[in-house]
Amino acid sequence: MALSKAKELRELSDDELSAEIANIKRELFDLRFQQATRQMETGFHQFKHARRKLAQLMTIERERQLSVGEAGADAVVSSEQ
Q1: Its pTM surpasses 0.85
Q2: H or E stretch including 7?
């Protein structure tokens, strides 16, 4: 699994971003389950890759939330003046 660049992930739509976050969370759950049941003999690096990608996706999602919040706050301030 190649690591994704944040630049590529920023090109995803909001729906695709949410779906990708759900997929990565499910992947992490499956990896933890495999480890707990001792089905995983190799590939422990997958945890690191999945956690990193999840962090990138959640960061991008939060950036978008904040940018929408700032745009909304700017509109309120300009309408009051």
Answers
A1: no
A2: helix 6-10
